[in-house]
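Quick entry between incubations.
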Amino acid sequence: MENERKLEEFQQKIDANIKIEPKDWMPEKYRQTLIRQISQHAHSEIIGMQPEGNWLTRAPSLRAKKILMAKIQDEAGHGLYLYCAAETLGVKREQFLQWLHEGKAKYSSVFNYPTLTWADMGAVGWLVDGAAIVNQVSLQGTSYGPYSRAMVKICMEESFHQRQGFEIMVQLAKGTEEQKQMAQDALNRWWWPSIMMFGPHDSESAHSNQSLKWKIKRESNDELRQRYIDKTIEQGHHLGLTFPDPNLKFNEETKNYDYSPIDWDEFWNVVKGNGPGNKLRINHHIKAHEDGKWVREAAKAYSNKINLSKKTA
Amino acid sequence: MSSDDQGILWEVFIQVKAGRPYKHVGSLHAYDKEMAMKSARDLYTRRNEGNGIWIVKAEDIVSSEASDGESFFDPSNDKVYRHPTFYKIPDGDKAYLMKNELIDYCLRLGDSSLILSHRIAEYCSKAPILEEDLAITNVGLDLLGQAENFLNYAAKLKGDTTADLLTFKRREGDFRCLHLVQTPNTDFAFILARQFLMDCYHQVLFNKLLNSKDETILGISKKAIKEVNYHLDRSNDWIKRLGLGTKESNKRIQNAINDLWMYTDELFTDNSTDIAIDKNNFGPLSSSLKNDWSDIVVNYFKDFRNRSS
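Done. Structure below.
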């Protein structure tokens, strides 16, 4: 009875668009869903540093190098904001990292794909960040206060990420024949993975309905995906590039672009980490984590010594 | 639960302009207050949002129950991209200096910052804690900006080339950087010790260059000295943490300093460029930097030995 009343009050707050704060009562499932979703989001930012970091030392100009460095740094920052938001739910960062290393926590499967050429820095910024932004803009309105606030900050900082990607695509698409081919090849490889970033169709999505009701998510996977496709196709045409989907066409009735069925076998294979990319990314993260263990211990020991000497002084 | 320790949680408050109130912007992990303060600077003022910073341990905050939350602080003067300020090159009178020597000098300063920044870029996503990944990238970005400024100037003096061409199209043997910055990354102690030795060198050098009769070098140095003072402050902190932390960290940082020591002689070796630069009051003799540098480095280690015993 007590819980039912609380649940009812909770839903009323959600319906009135009042943000839920860490100390407020919340259903256990709401808390668990947020822990899963926010940490997954944080892991994605952190693992997402790797495919781009791959090109940091080979960026073709000083300007491009600076921008890429600042962009990857932002990703580290965004991961950090999100870990901190997730920590307000009572789980420590150490635990999140452990779950990531043990394969218990997921991150966006798109970061398991390799970045083969410089054009991939364009395609990742334009398509992958473009898709992420559609999702993040929507999540600014999420019902959990710390998550919503992190999203607002992230959206503000992300604004340059997609632009830098698109700028690279423009340079290549308007460049030599070889550069144009490079841009087209990158678009071909990143288009479908970027579409899959929005997750399973609404009809297949295990958590969707409850998440929408609690306003953890504000729009469904398919709605967000459609918005991304519609805006991106226009941009692609501007570049004079084609999309690897013969069924892509504007539907006069719905005013949206129709597209081919998504290859969900590939999606689930990548999500489940069946590819070589997943091993590579996680091993890189584990190695950095283990290599840094003695540094963290030293910093901790030093702070203990400082505190001790203060107390005895 | 994991035995790992990511430090304690701190809350960060930023003041955008003098006189304005401090507002909460977010949190971070750090092991001590110096690290928390520097991480806050590196994380939450990347876009020039800050004039003042407060940090407080999250556990020390007494929070109201079931509050509806305060409005989150959004930096209002956000930039699309925080452009490093490109220094406009004024036309100075270079007639009385051998142009080639000035070019060589700019390449030396530019290349050393360029390659050190490259080493930092290689370290991306490998730092011991996320806060440190962000912080060290800021150092890398500063150095890259310094490199670009010096290479732009060298390109302008040379004519018919650009900073990009100098960076990407020169043969390996034509680079003028110090050997110290070329040493490949090994562990965090090595990366940090290398940074510390360079930061000390940069601080002494750029302080002298504040007397340069060359307007461009003077302009670049005025900007660089602020960055470098912060870099040294940061690497100082870490040397302290590692030196006084655990047995292992002490051994590692000591080994790193030992291994790098042989590269430091080169920092103070004069050649014909130094002599021409000094004669024209454009910059100091490299050999003249040695005393100040030794004072900083050696006194620091001495002070440190006293405290650790």
